[in-house]
């Protein structure tokens, strides 16, 4: 585990998982500072740096040494409006964020992907997620952790009717297919950040649930 205070870079702090992770990070005594660029201002905190604007424009302006980076960026086809717009967020922006984090000295990247991510999938959503993972592997991170949660559970600012309909059913699914709360996922990501290692580790949803509960 890290024994010295860390500087953390977090993307997606206003999202369902990101807001839980940000709260966890700001309450960790080993975290010196969280650099969290966002489109909307976050609540002020003495250990939070919050550049406000479009992430793509903010990335070149970010500065300071980073130890660990978390990427919780993600959209839906409905929110994005088109396949091109979806790919821009869930692939291009994630890859650009990771590259910038590496330039700032981050050794460990933890990224939220998705159950079923596969660059050869016939399902567009899963294929984009898989291609994103593939691009991150090509960046040759000293330590890369890919989290593949199933359906994320928890209250959202924006109502998603289909998720509201399927959420109760997701509790009945077996193993890695069962839904996972965003709070549990955030706790699991922090646990994984404390594990030193080398290379790439893919963590499926059932393991994420176990890590997040402990």
From TrEMBL:
Gene3D superfamilies: NAD(P)-binding Rossmann-like Domain. Pfam families: NAD_binding_10. InterPro entries: NAD(P)-bd_dom, NAD(P)-bd_dom_sf. SUPFAM superfamilies: NAD(P)-binding Rossmann-fold domains (SSF51735). It comes from the Bacteria. Residues 12-153 form the NAD(P)-binding domain. This is NAD-dependent epimerase/dehydratase family protein. The lineage of its organism: Bacteria, Pseudomonadati, Pseudomonadota, Gammaproteobacteria, Pseudomonadales.
């Amino acid at each position: 585990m890290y024994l010295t205070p860390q500087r953390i870079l977090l993307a997606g702090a206003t999202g369902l998982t990101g807001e839980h992770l940000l709260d966890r990070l700001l309450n960790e005594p080993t975290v010196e500072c969280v650099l969290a660029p966002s489109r909307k201002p976050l609540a002020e905190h003495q250990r939070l740096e919050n550049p406000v604007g479009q992430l793509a424009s903010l990335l070149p302006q970010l500065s300071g040494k980073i130890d660990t980076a978390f990427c919780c960026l993600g959209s839906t086809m409905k929110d994005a409006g088109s396949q091109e717009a979806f790919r821009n967020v869930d692939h291009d922006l994630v890859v650009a964020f990771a590259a910038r984090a590496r330039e700032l000295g981050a050794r460990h990247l933890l990224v939220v992907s998705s159950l079923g991510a596969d660059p050869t999938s016939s399902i567009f959503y899963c294929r984009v997620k898989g291609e994103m993972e593939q691009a991150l592997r090509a960046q040759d991170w000293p330590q890369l952790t890919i989290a593949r949660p199933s359906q994320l559970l928890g209250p959202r600012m924006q109502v998603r009717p289909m998720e509201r309909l399927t959420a109760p059913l997701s509790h009945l699914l077996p193993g890695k297919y069962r839904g996972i709360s965003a709070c549990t996922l955030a706790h699991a990501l922090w646990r994984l950040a404390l594990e030193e290692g080398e290379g790439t580790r893919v963590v499926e949803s059932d393991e994420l649930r176990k890590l997040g509960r402990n």
